[in-house]
Amino acid sequence: PQALDIEQVRRDFPALNQSVNGKPLVYLDNAASAQKPQAVLDAMDQYYRESHSNVHRGAHTLGDRATMAFEGARDTVRGFLNANSISEIVWVRGATEGINLIANGFYDRLGPEDEILISHMEHHANIVPWQMLAQKTGATLKVIAVTDEGELDQDSFREQLSERTAVFAITQVSNTLGTINPVTEMVAAAKEAGAFTVVDGAQAVPHMSVDVQALGCDFLVFSSHKVFGPTGIGVVYGREELMHEWPVYQTGGEMIHRVSFEGTSFQNSPYRFEAGTPAIAEAVGLGEAIRYLDGLGRDAIEAAEKTLQQRVNEWTADFPGLHPIGTSSNKVPVLSFTLDGLHPSDVGTLLDQQGVAIRTGHHCTMPLMERFGVPGTARASFAFYNTVEEVDTFFQGLQKIQRLFAE
Ligand code: PMP
């Protein structure tokens, strides 16, 4: 594939071209939220300037334009995930709301004999909704162990998967460790056992192409803001056969077929899940972000990230006092670590003074922190627009901090 011209690419992202604390910004907090290309900002701006109205009520031209833009974005997402039909693509606020929507549908399906299988590396968004579901229905929450390398323990998976497993919910990529999980194989095994399968794709979509048909899952969620689109919107993919029957999540306008005081009937999917006026400009922005990524090319993006990962590996191979957490060879460029003698939040603050933005803390994965016996980590998470020089600046920044504290 055509290699990315990173300097050219960086000019597409206004937020990357600024100084912070008197230093050029080095933005390494992409797993928390990614920056936005100008094309996304322009698409949203143009939408508001020229096409804004409410959707699906078009007695007039702007209503039609808004509806076309909104539904066009839905079809762009459909193509992005290789879903079969737009009935399978539901707009939500983000991955969190998406998992809640899916879990909500299980409240009348599960009982004390059922089990919900998740893993020890899940984000709280893929733990708490299932824990609540278990508490309400009497079902049991089971947890796949994580190895010292930060991979899913496949023996633990096989031991705990059974015909009692009603739901299998798993992250495709760990936000804290960067580990890429073998979800295709695990989803296949879970389906074989008769479970519904849910994939948290929040950290996968920024780094790799995600094909829901190849994955074979029943549901998948992701958030726009991590994939270079705006905040406030995300997606639930659900298999069409399930979605038209899946329990509605919120009720009100837009999602109904017919309302009377005797009772109400609902629309088919996706509209049955979209109560009220949706995030229209945000949908347009997400559609544009996907077009932008397609323009760069998935292969070129992966190649650029591989270069960054190699540089990270060179540095971590010999860095006294630095302890990476999550050392799988199959990962996206995310480095969680501790530095001897330093609290992660101090590492974050001292890097920020040098213009380097990382995240510190538990990364919404408290059980995983407990698994590795740390209260938190510092995490540098990279995107295709980061440069090898920025990797160097980051590690040199850590060396500076170590020298400062050695004195
Ligand atoms: N799952 C994973 C793996 C995540 O990394 C995140 C965001 N940190 C979420 C779910 C939740 O996404 P959001 O906050 O956008 O709803």
From TrEMBL:
Q: Identify the InterPro entries for this entry.
A: Aminotrans_V_dom (IPR000192), Aminotrans_V_PyrdxlP_BS (IPR020578), Cys_dSase_SufS (IPR010970), PyrdxlP-dep_Trfase (IPR015424), PyrdxlP-dep_Trfase_major (IPR015421), PyrdxlP-dep_Trfase_small (IPR015422)
The enzyme's main class, written as a single word, is transferase
GO BP terms: namely: cysteine metabolic process
Q: Name one Pfam family in it.
A: Aminotran_5
Q: From what superkingdom does this record's organism come?
A: Bacteria
What function is annotated for this protein?
Catalyzes the removal of elemental sulfur and selenium atoms from L-cysteine, L-cystine, L-selenocysteine, and L-selenocystine to produce L-alanine.
Q: Sorted alphabetically, which PANTHER family does this protein's record hold?
A: CYSTEINE DESULFURASE (PTHR43586), CYSTEINE DESULFURASE 1, CHLOROPLASTIC (PTHR43586:SF8)
Mind telling me which NCBIfam families this protein's record contains? Answer: sufS
Q: What is this protein called?
A: Cysteine desulfurase
Gene source species: Halospina denitrificans
